[in-house]
Amino acid sequence: MDKVIEIFGSNVFGDAVMKERLPEDTYNILKSTIKEGKGIDSSIADTVANAMKEWAIEKGATHYTHWFQPLTGITAEKHDSFISPTEDGGILMEFSGKELIKGEPDASSFPSGGLRATFEARGYTAWDPSSYAFIKDETLCIPTAFCSYTGEALDQKTPLLRSMEAINKQALRIIKLFGHDDVKRVNVTVGPEQEYFLVDKTLYDKRPDLIYCGRTLIGSMPPKGQEMDDHYFGVLKPRVAAFMRELDAELWKLGVLAKTEHNEAAPAQHELAPVFTTINIAADHNQLTMEMMKKTALKHGLVCLLHEKPYDGVNGSGKHNNWSLSTDTGINFLKPGKKPEENLLFLLTLVAVIRAVDLHQDLLRISVATAGNDHRLGANEAPPAIISIFLGEDLESILEDIACGTHHDNIKGAKMNIGAEIIPAFKKDNTDRNRTSPFAFTGNKFEFRGLGSAASISDTNVMLNTMVADVFSEFADRLENAASFEDEVNCIVKEVMDTHRRIIFNGDGYSKEWEKEAEKRGLLNLKSTVDALPLLKNEENIKMFEKHGVFSRTEINSRVDIILENYTKIIHIEALTLIDMMNKEIVPVISSYTDKLCATLLNKNKIGGINSEVERELIYRLSAAEKEIFTLTNELKMATAASEKINDVYEKAVFYHDKVLKLMEDIRKYADSAECVVPASIWPYPSYGELLFNI
Ligand code: ADP
Ligand code: MG
């Protein structure tokens, strides 16, 4: 491999390239735009575009594209070549400032939740200079926001940028109160840990469910799953290691700070964690990471599955969203320091997050609501659908002491002694790990673990940024007018603890007792997307988003529709796939094997004196399963047809949740029971054992 330092960022029009290739004044204007998040000065656009083009052509690029994130969940590109004809029949390679700043893709072909009718299809993409342009597949990619002709956001990036502004504005008010007048900007920092599965491509190709749905719709567990805990952090298989090496290199070229790669809990499951960065870039990079995972896997004869629940019976995949706030001068709001009990900025931020999360449990849950993630949340492997915060005992007792006015001994920085002399003593972390908590304080950041593996991280961060901005604005209003700053901070901490104590839970989030306890505490338990989504339209939510300029009422309404439509479509495709698999493969296989058993039975009886109980029993069992599968599959088919008549988006989603999903689960039970007795040699699909262990 080339030297990492040389390849890192080699396909990015980043700071060093800009400095080298742009005139000094242009560079300075662009740099301050990026640093302070200000609007772009369009007078520099032509110069920047030209420099980008020259650089890209030297790197072998022939095309450019505005790279954006419509609400399809993936990124979109529309490639244009740089060529422009000359009068003498030749060509020039051109790229203008106008082309850099603005694009006009047809908006009607992307989800808009009714915002865009096909006859008014115009949409705009607009350059986001805060995320660097890069080269991918011989194409110069310009990160852009995507909106309608009337300015409504049709993408993930626009609300994210708006929410960054909202929290910057309020966090600046807070940090100024602490006397840090030199701070110009407060950024949200995020490190998303990405989980995924790998599966052999030839096996994948034999599974229509994986091909069409990204997850298996049937499949019985092999004798071994993940119960031995021997995969997590285990030694990498050579093929997987080769894949990860190449993935890292590809990501480094794109400036993605890929850092940690390891095996996850389930067989064939892995994780990649980057070093954290500003949320806008982290979100773009996470999209690129998912894309590169898929592409790179193919080169190794593998397929990368990003679905939240590819296999029943082993863990699903998620993303951990590590979130914090940091000033352009390097202050992390959530760094406890040596004496957290005296660190007022830390304590204030901590209670701001606590208040925000308790007030807006619904928004966090909504931000991770998808058909895929519903299979994961609330199962005994992922955070529960109930939102709660893990602080750890030390921090909780600091806050309780302030709330109750008692004294707290400084127990920070205790040395850890693991009892082996040769190992140097190291400092204990302020908090232990609690893997079962959906929202955990982990040292100098909060980690939200509810995100699905396939979704963009934008939604969650839009919610987090806005709700914390809202609480900050409330705190700033009070503190700016307070007679004594310190007394007021203490008062706020006390009030938050008194009002929001219920959201703090350090125990086992997977336990049944917690579900009961949470209910007693009045916490929400939104089990599915259809339970969660309607709450987004609550008046107080709309007011908050409008107050901070993140979403308009129209945008919220359209988003709810888009998410629900997406939910319905996904389950619809799954249902059709399952119907196909049952009718064309499973029922015929069960039938022909039963036929064979019948022949054996008859032969045995003909000879006489040979025991044929086994055949008889198998025939009964299989024909019963076959009958159930056949009947239920018909019912499923009728249900998908009946759904066409439901016009209301929400009603339709509920129908898919209550009726269609339920039927699919029932069919699966019978198909899986049949798989256990039909010979592997004639079962039409690769088994879980092969899919999970043949890498
Ligand atoms: P674990 O698996 O224990 O959660 P990892 O090291 O895999 O830990 O992931 C931690 C993630 O948190 C990394 O992406 C890291 O860069 C990120 N992180 C660390 N500090 C911050 C911070 N201040 N803000 C946001 N993310 C952070
Ligand atoms: Mg983590």
Could you name the key traits of this structure?
single chain; 695 residues; alpha+beta; Ubiquitin-like (UB roll); Creatine Kinase, Chain A, domain 2; Four Helix Bundle (Hemerythrin (Met), subunit A); 3 domains; 9-stranded mixed beta sheet; 6-stranded mixed beta sheet; 23 helices; 47% helix; 13% strand; binds adenosine-5'-diphosphate; binds magnesium ion
Task: Please provide a written account of the structure.
The chain has 695 residues and is of the alpha+beta class. The chain contains 23 helices and 19 strands. The protein folds into three domains: 2-154, Ubiquitin-like (UB roll) (Roll), CATH 3.10.20.70; 163-551, Creatine Kinase, Chain A, domain 2 (2-Layer Sandwich), CATH 3.30.590.10; 567-693, Four Helix Bundle (Hemerythrin (Met), subunit A). It is 47% helix and 13% strand. The strands form four sheets. Strands 9, 10, 11, 12, 13, 14, 15, 18 and 19 form a nine-stranded mixed sheet that branches. Strands 1, 2, 5, 6, 7 and 8 form a six-stranded mixed sheet that branches. β10 (258-263) and β11 form a beta hairpin. Magnesium ion (MG) binds next to loops.
Question: How are the SSEs placed, and which strands pair?
Answer:
Elements: H1 4-7, H2 15-21, H3 24-36, H4 45-58, E1 63-67, E2 80-81, E3 83-85, E4 91-93, H5 97-101, E5 102-103, E6 123-127, E7 134-136, E8 139-148, H6 157-177, E9 186-200, H7 201-204, H8 208-213, H9 238-253, E10 258-263, E11 269-274, E12 277-278, H10 279-299, E13 302-305, E14 318-327, H11 344-359, H12 361-367, H13 371-374, E15 389-390, H14 393-404, E16 415-416, E17 426-427, E18 439-441, E19 446-452, H15 458-480, H16 485-500, H17 512-520, H18 529-532, H19 539-547, H20 553-607, H21 613-643, H22 649-675, H23 688-693
Parallel strand pairs: 1-8, 15-18
Antiparallel strand pairs: 1-2, 3-4, 5-6, 6-8, 7-8, 9-11, 9-12, 9-13, 9-14, 10-11, 14-19, 16-17, 18-19
Helix pairs in contact: 6-15, 9-10, 11-15, 11-16, 12-15, 14-16, 15-16, 20-21, 20-22, 21-22
Bound molecules: adenosine-5'-diphosphate and magnesium ion.
Residues 193, 320, 447 line the site of magnesium ion.
